Amino acid sequence: MPARPFLWRALSPAMFAIVPRMQNFMRAPSFKPFKRWWYRCFADPYTNLRNEPLEVTAVFGARFRARLSGVVQRSLFHFGVFEPNLTAFLSERLRPGDTFVDVGANVGYFTLLASKLVGDSGRVVAIEASPATFAALNENIVRNEACNVRTANVAAYDCETTLPIYHLPDEEFTSGASVVRAIGPQEAAIPARPLPSIMTETERASARVIKIDVEGAEERVVEGLLGATHSLREDVEIVVEVLPESYRSVIAKLGECGFVASVLKNPLDPLADAAGSTELEAIAPSASPERFTMAHGVLYLVFARARVNGKMVETTGIEPATSCLQSRRSTN
To answer: Which domains occur in the chain, in start order?
Structure first.
């Protein structure tokens, strides 16, 4: 509506005074109809008007400093949580002493959540390809004194090579960076390696959860992981954000190594239950990805080793490709 921006500007002094004081109300589980109206009319416009960097705090205590143009920071400012179902899933799975591998760590929300969950005896490996986002990630790790986190500014891929990375233009430190899709201007050329070569032997053996969120490159990352699945712990779970075009391929590739897929419902609705749900929905490889994507927002597939009579299925994995040329030949 044309009058709306003018109304926002006219009301901006009031919004700047009131919206920050409404954070506790926005994070409470009740009054959803009113909160939805408040968010749409005042809280979300407020984040569009607030341009300077500021500090936001997650419900688990981690602090982040950035502009509210980023989708992660915006969600944290209002609700204290980002992707509540995945947050709840990790909180349920990770225990002190575990290792968490965050492929596509962004500014470190899940990295810092896992850092608290695995404790001083555990380990977090945060992998972020974008140099600008990687700098923000490291700043947040230092800000939160997360000494159990190791970072790597590299792209996980199916071979060793150099790739261009593209970043969405008008958004600061969001999930909008890709090495396989030209979604915006090229930010840099970065090194790429298979995920097992980025991780140490100890990290592979102790990884309880591997999260892969790489904006369209998930098929290539999974391909690079296949040769090392036999070296992962038996109860490892691999969480992959997939696009509809890579959905069946990712299920098939990990299925060859004895992993079965479930869907973790993860709504994009900012007013979804902040407590989150860890409910997993079993799926068949032939199921249409659109019904999950349309119904639940972001589509996360959770892979765990198949069980027969209560026992894990033994797998030997697939020989990894060590170069792009070898990888291309193997598919011809």
So the answer is: 3-79 (no CATH), 84-331 (3.40.50.150)
